[in-house]
Specification:
The chain is 0% helix and 39% strand. It is built from no helices and 13 strands. It has a four-stranded antiparallel sheet, with no helix packed on it. A four-stranded mixed sheet has the order 2-8-7-4, with no helix packed on it. Strands 10-13-12 form a three-stranded antiparallel sheet, with no helix packed on it. It starts with 23 loop residues before the first strand and ends with a strand.
Length: 193
């Protein structure tokens, strides 16, 4: 009244109730590896509400034909290392999922990243059956079957490839027909007369 502003002070309380924040793990960028290679990935865990004394970090693969479960993760508190080792001769893609849980195990955080394993051409392998081939001078064309045995073109996913053998004689002057080995392991040569 009378143009005079009046104030009536009041007080009240605001109570902010804490909530349990989930732990956080460093994000991992997509990973690309060559077949039969592995890598270690360093991970860091933080948690606003925890001293990180009982943290757990687990990792799983969406493609167990590429990476077996569980994916090994070792560490304590804030520092962890994931050992990413695809299966032998495996290639393709997978999603790796990381789960971190803090001391009370009540709150969890999940992160995922893509893994691509690129195929490589594996070398063939074989065994020689005899160590020494002995023939008489002036002998005709020689054909030794099963001279090369256990011929493997590579892993099963490379079975359609063709194996060829290259022979470099220490002394080519000893031959009228240089040695050659067929894809099935037959050694052929003609000694010089």
């Amino acid at each position: 009244l009378g143009g005079i502003n009046q104030t009536l002070p009041q007080t009240f309380n605001i109570v902010v109730t804490p909530v349990n924040d989930a732990p956080v793990i460093t994000p991992v960028s997509p990973v690309t590896l060559l077949e039969d290679r592995s890598t270690n990935i360093v991970l860091t865990v933080t948690d606003l509400d925890s001293t990180l004394t009982n943290v757990t970090v687990t990792a799983t693969s969406s493609n167990t034909n590429l990476v077996a479960n569980p994916v090994p993760v070792l560490g304590t508190r804030a520092n962890w290392t994931m050992f990413l080792a695809p299966l032998t001769n495996a290639y393709g893609t997978a999603t790796i999922t990381l789960v971190v849980a803090a001391d009370d195990q009540a709150e969890r955080t999940t992160n995922s990243f893509g893994l691509t394993v690129t195929p490589v051409n594996d070398p063939p392998s074989f065994n020689l059956s005899p160590n020494l081939v002995s023939v008489l001078e002036d002998a005709p064309l020689q054909k030794l079957t099963n001279f090369v045995i256990n011929i493997r073109k590579g892993p099963p996913n490379e079975a359609s490839q063709t194996v060829t053998f290259k022979i470099t004689p220490a002394d080519p002057t000893l031959f009228a027909g240089l040695p050659s080995i067929s894809p099935n392991g037959l050694l052929s040569f003609t000694p010089k007369t």
